[in-house]
Fold these 4 entries.
Entry 1:
Amino acid sequence: MPARGAFVVLEGLDRCGKTTQLSLLRSSLSSSSPPTPVKALNFPDRTTPIGTMINSYLKTAADMSDNAIHLLFSSNRWEAAPALLETLREGTTVVCDRYAFSGVAFTAAKNNGTCGYDWCKGPDVGLPRPDLVLFLTVSESVQEKRGDYGGERYETRELQRSVRGVFDRLRADDEGERPWKVVDADRSVEEVARDIEEAVREVEERVRGENPPIAKL
Ligand code: TMP
């Protein structure tokens, strides 16, 4: 049995550069010598029937209550969880663009927190817990300068500010379990990529050496 792969999540506000960084990370891991087996995931996964409903909601083509859309985002992770576990157990490292932390941060930030923070955490309890959460921070001015900002439902300055606050709370709450690594994503793509790769290689090595069981949220 090979040692399991590491589970790494990239989180952050909209337009923090996660998607670019994830693709650079995947290429650098798979082209290293020897190559690290790696699979990239992203949430929401808009390709499934649940993901299609989420996509209509985000593009404002469909409306839904805050509770209902929150549960759909979580279901979208649960439907992916068996394959995710299998991939990790096969020894493949998984790098993932957004996860349950975005789920809590965005819903709890909406409408003055009508869906409470604890309620928001509930549906994701039991999902595989990442070995590392990389939190990319971005300033408002840089965020708003990046392409396509404002095209989807949550891309307003006011909401992004509240989301930032909930992410800070999530990070503080996780401190005892497995600290997040904060990465300043206002810097150049290359500088950010270097920090991310270093942190991922470190956790990869630890997981391959210790082969710890996959923890749960
Ligand atoms: P994306 O731009 O990374 O595809 O994410 C789409 C939006 O969905 C983004 O504004 C964050 C939000 N989101 C949630 O509200 N809940 C979730 O569980 C996830 C994964 C994303």
Note: Residues 196 and 202 are 10 Å apart (CA to CA).
Entry 2:
Amino acid sequence: MENRPQWGTRAGFILAAVGSAVGLGNIWRFPAVAYENGGGAFFLPYLFALLTAGIPLLILEFTLGHKYRGSAPMTYARVNKKFEWLGWWQVGIAFVISTYYAVILAWAASYSVFSFNLTWGDDPAAFLFEKHLQLAAPGEFGGIVPSVLIPLVIIWVVTLGILFAGVKKGIEKANKIFIPTLVVMFLIICIRAVTLDGATEGLQSFFSPDWSRIMDASVWVAAYGQIFFSLSIAFAIMVTYSSYLPKKSDITNNAFITGFANSGFELLAGIGVFSALGFMAAQQGVPVQDVVEAGVGLAFVVFPQIINEFPAFNGLFGFLFFASIVLAGLTSLISIVETFVAGLQDKFGISRTKSVLIGGGISALLSLIYATRGGLNFLDSVDYFINTFGITLAGLVQVILVAWVAKELKNLQSHANGISDIQLGTWWRICLTVITPIVLGWMMIDNFRINLTTPYGGYPIAFLIQWGWLVALAVIIIGIAFSAIKWKKEHPASVSNDK
Ligand code: PHE
Ligand code: NA
């Protein structure tokens, strides 16, 4: 009765899940977050967050997908007919992210080519903002930038091409090639980085613990925030990927492997990035703290500066760095787009080809917004709001609905225990019914407090309302609207959800 696609191998599923988890967050977010929140002392809250929320939620999402065998909307509808909107909301969040994530990959693709000639010159900041992006003021579009458009088209062709090919022949195969390649390339960079002059000072400032920060609630919030974002939780992604698992699959083990592999890559990135920062600080004769950056500034301004000063093979190491960003990001983008490809297929009974064409096509068209001269401003604001008032809030609603309203945890626990080596106990349910809701609830209150008092990034309020608050709200409304549409094939609840 079942014609749902399946992963070919267990390693294929794990590589795809790790491919989704390992993304820009590992490379340009984790090192700075750890550094700013106590350095070596951050590892305690980080590990705590991984074990009490990250891995338990990963197990929850793997179990939901495996048991109910559907995209996020179908899975949540099968838990309870009234929960379908949550699936669409999460799919909507993934959709919004896909529109700008592709653009960052397009920049990185250009920079991997620029590396060979050090095209960015002596002033990479001026190059990025004035030449490459031709950045306009917040709220202004100012026409499409051709040098961004061309790589963007290539990124979409590759991503949608892989999705057309299907779960096994497309997603699985791509991850089997991309992830090992990424690990090798990134290892080469890190080995070179730790042997640079000044690397020791960089590593020292990264690892030296500031225990005075440990009682600070914001440090714990940062740890949980990093874990949620980094593991791609509450995005519909892990539910979708695990809906393609064969009946016999060790869910709990897979979740632990995915969680630890992602954190391992984060640690590696922290070592590589801070070695390189230590090198740059030594070159410029300034303290390491003066050169620490995250996000776009780290990747597209600081790293080009580091590459400029590299003792030898600048071009090669520049290429390896930006190609790593492209591969890490591409495997995440594939997983993001797959959430709505699967959702549309389930709901409207259309073929994968049609679904990729429609869903991927609309996302690709919308991504042109960020290829305009005002693109970076829109991207920055949408990214911040969809993360703060999308993922966190959707994660909170998810645990409340599944654990408290549907009281599903005991059923899910026995489902997972029936097929897994490691047996889930009461601790798993406590993590999800008590710890995770408290932390997420606290984070939400904190987020509202901060954003209602200080406008994010110093942008004009009207800009933040349009490109922040309204985007986050629109996704919820669209989620509810989609759940009101009738199912094409069969009502999801009428399909047996055999245990
Ligand atoms: N988990 C990814 C990372 O650490 C980020 C991501 C965001 C992945 C959105 C999928 C969707 O970078
Ligand atoms: Na990650």
Note: The pocket of sodium ion (ligand 2) is lined by residues 21-23, 25-26, 230, 262 (CB under 6 Å).
Entry 3:
Amino acid sequence: MRVLVTGGAGFIGSAVVRHLVLVRNYDVLTVDKLTYAGNVASLATVENNPLHRFLQADICNRAAMQEAFDSFKPDRVMHLAAESHVDRSITGARDFIETNVVGSFTLLETARHYWQDLFGKAKTDFRFVHVSTDEVYGSLGKDGLFTEETPYDPSSPYSASKAASDHLAKAWGRTYGMPVIVSNCSNNYGPYHFPEKLIPLIVLNALESKSLPVYGNGANIRDWLFVEDHARALDLIVERGRIGETYNIGGRNERSNIEVVKRICSIMDTLRPQKAPHERLITYVRDRPGHDARYAIDATKLEAELGWKAEENFDTGIEKTVNWYLENEWWWAPLRQGYGGGRLGLLNGSG
Ligand code: NAD
């Protein structure tokens, strides 16, 4: 099996690549532009594996995508490349429109021509999985869950750009008959998460006794999924998902942001005790504009049809994650220096 993974040097993409190469023994081509969020160090465990190849390229570049498809000849495409940080989309939406909308369009067009050539030769076992977010559905009130039928109602430039790309992917399925599947996932956490996102930011700021910024009153709720559970779900979807369908992926692990931050503080109190508890560092900051109150996923379709279940509950997953950051300074220290770690106001993005 030959799988082309876009965005494979990112947080979730690298977990997918590690899973496909190390667990499934598939041939994988990672295509990644290496923006600030892309990091080849996240692929260190597959770097010298003959099953893995890496191509630095922009999904907006049609000629580069054509060359990648023609030379690698994938059976599957898993499209994860995106600009993914909500706060960055608020201060500068252009890159989000370019990569998430124009880039997804370019990739879909390249894949369509490639697939149509194969189709002409009667080889039809090609699949394209477009990986998206539950943020396209907007915000929930206190009750209810996002299902695959929930109408789209995105709030941020990020979620609007992802919604646009979901519609393009579905249209390429309906109009051209291309074998497309869309997945919409809740917030991920785990190893190799870029240190601007809520969980790694809190762990690393706590480690350095810096303030722990929390938006508003911290009541916003997210449904957390361990990144390796997401990678397994995507593997099942690309192999056994029904063409033309959408699958929601979620961990049934709803937590408010302040609960998450306090849980990390208590783990840090045990692992790296300080004179006073880490909770003293919590600082409430002005809320993000358009901040969705609650996301929660109903993953029944994925569970019932494909037999997937999240293996990691939040309490064990968050401990593993904190431990990973404490043990892998080699990975995060260069990023944190480059990024000016610990800045207030940058947290709690899509991931
Ligand atoms: P990430 O920001 O960690 O990684 C994105 C990767 O895409 C990076 O390696 C980056 O270099 C690459 N990239 C960006 N622009 C590119 C371009 N023009 N051409 C080629 N490569 C490019 O993101 P992530 O958190 O791993 O998210 C991956 C996908 O999953 C995204 O599509 C995101 O919308 C979706 N998603 C994320 C979450 C989450 O919690 N992180 C939840 C649901 C869905």
Note: Confidence is low (pLDDT under 50) at residues 340-351.
Entry 4:
Amino acid sequence: MSSETDQLRIFFLPLPTPGHMIPMVEEARVFAKHGVDVTIILTQGNANLVQKNIDHDSNTGHKIKTHVLQFPSAQAGLPDGVENFNSVTNIEMSHTLYRGIHLLQNQIEQLFHDMLPDCIVSDMFFPWTLDVATELGIPRLGFRGCGYFALCSEYCIKRHEPHKSTDSDVVLLPGLPPGTEQKSLGMLMNSFHELEGSYEEYLKTDIGLKAWSLGPVSLWANKDVNQKAERCNIAGREGHEVIDWLNSKEHNSVLYVGFGSLAMLPATQLNEIAHGLEASGHSFIWVVRKKESDEYDQVFPEGFEERMSESKKGFIIKGWAPQMLILEHPAIGGQVTHCGWNSILEGLNSGLPMIAWPLFAEQFYNEKLLTDVLRIAVAVGVKEWREYCEEGTAMVNRDEVEKAVRLLMGGEEEAAEMRKRVRKLQEAAKKAVEVGGSSHANLMDLINKLKSLKVKKI
Ligand code: UDP
């Protein structure tokens, strides 16, 4: 094989929301580490968030770069600097951002025509990339940012509509159908065989979708503290101080409470969380994203911040936390998670049992995976799906919060069993991304397949 045919060039097109962009950039970095020439298409504001790690990899000799586009803020009707779903303050603004991103479609299509990559890796939110890939005669790989269990459950519900034949809140999911994914070469999944093997199998055999499990990518791509801190460079003053605070705590004594990069809970809900955490008596780090219209003194009980700071019981981060670094710290003993797929994987990579508090998107499926299948989490008991910045009353009260925290952090038998199970998965995750591991083998298989498709085309 000549060096020209041997050199794969892949373009990655992420959706600019941390839960999709971070893992896709990490996936791209893993490809580059294994000899692929990688280009990631981002607008300037988003490139700024991830550029440091890309430059670091490029400086160590990997072929990786960003192709930077200007976001059409004026045309989209958005203030300058709003290029990522993390910066939107309400649902209308998120729809405007979504439309704004699609104003770039022609420009991106032209870029693919000019650059003629060997493969396009596209977020699911850009189905039109399938048409460009087909026109160019190159493979497209889809990226969904969720796990197999959620994907299989979604297909299953579409195919069998079990909710239509019952009045019960509980539905059984017997079997499952597809769209652009089926016409693509396949999907890249940020998961690993030892975690979701049976659902991986189900997706391939019953649904008939090809997929490569390449996870957990955060573990694979980020090897040192700087890389872990620079995964998404959204500034936060408290982020730097939190590690010092953790260093003063005993092993496994601190609970991490985070609801991802998008969710803004109603003030009443935040207030219940504050009461519940304080009443539990356990130490915690809480990443709070409030609505723009709420003030912190409406959100927190009177004197809460001062009490937490003086007693060193609670560390409150307003905005953005270096989540991967925090979760890996030995002082962290458990995690309250909104069941976002990346946060689940990051908790699992750190061997943490969890409190499952799903909010939106596919998170209620993920809750079931955590509590009923893997049995590494206790459910806090949320029953209602709500949009990520919807107004509303509290869905979980302070007593329920306190009870779940005491159960997870109080050294009970049930929590100890969950910890044992999640530690096994932690070990399996590490092995999956090492040479000889399942995800590593999948990447090698995929790279070889893409190379043979390239040779065939030539
Ligand atoms: N994240 C972070 N700091 C924060 C909030 C989120 O580093 O303060 C990262 C987190 O580590 C994860 C991603 O953002 O990699 C969030 O993805 P997830 O799927 O958990 O949830 P989403 O934000 O999409 O709801």
Note: The chain has two domains: 3-221+433-457, 228-430.
